[in-house]
Design brief:
By secondary structure, this protein is mainly α. It has one domain (about 1-134). It has helices at about 1-15, 20-30, 35-65, 75-105, 110-134. It starts with a helix and ends with a helix. The structure holds protoporphyrin IX containing FE.
């Protein structure tokens, strides 16, 4: 019972995460590189829409792994475990780093857009691995 609830949470929240970097890409193209208001919005969506729910999905994923008796050596699990790491690094270095430049009155470089695209591809890779691997 509890397991199905956690499974559903992991499944649907995990799938929904794919949409968030698309919004980030859109904001990066729409002026978040130069306008502090849009940069602030992008920062909030990045933190509260992607990183925080993603960490929850990650922890629930680990819990599911133990509860369902799966092995950490299964490929889709490794893709999830390892694939989240670059999402955090890109988030810190490219997204947050570039948004800080905008907040300080400057102009973000193309790293902002590249970071959002990279996060999209990483989340997509994890979700595809989860759907087809388990
Ligand atoms: C944050 C990154 C992750 C995302 C976006 C994600 C997404 C998903 C999705 C969408 C499913 C459903 C697949 C389906 O039923 O068709 C799934 C299943 C699963 N995930 Fe993840 N996942 C992530 C990380 C992890 C991690 C880190 C682990 C384990 C350490 C994990 C373990 C599992 C397991 C065991 C299942 C299968 C549950 C079952 O047997 O029904 N996931 N994941």
């Amino acid at each position: 019972m509890m397991e199905t609830g956690l499974e559903q949470l992991h499944h649907y929240l995990g799938e929904a995460l794919v949409a968030v970097p698309i919004v980030l890409v859109f904001l990066a193209l729409k002026g978040a590189r130069t306008q502090s208001k849009l940069a602030k919005l992008m920062g909030r969506i990045h933190t509260f829409g992607l990183l925080m729910p993603g960490r929850l999905v990650y922890l629930v994923g680990l819990t599911l792994m133990y509860m369902t008796g799966r092995s950490i050596t299964e490929v889709f699990i490794l893709v999830g475990l390892i694939g989240w790491v670059p999402i955090e690094i890109v988030g810190k270095r490219l997204i947050k780093g570039e948004l800080k430049v905008v907040a300080d009155g400057g102009e973000a470089s193309s790293k902002l857009l590249i970071g959002a695209i990279a996060q999209f591809l990483l989340v997509l890779t994890i979700v595809v691995a989860m759907e087809y691997g388990h």
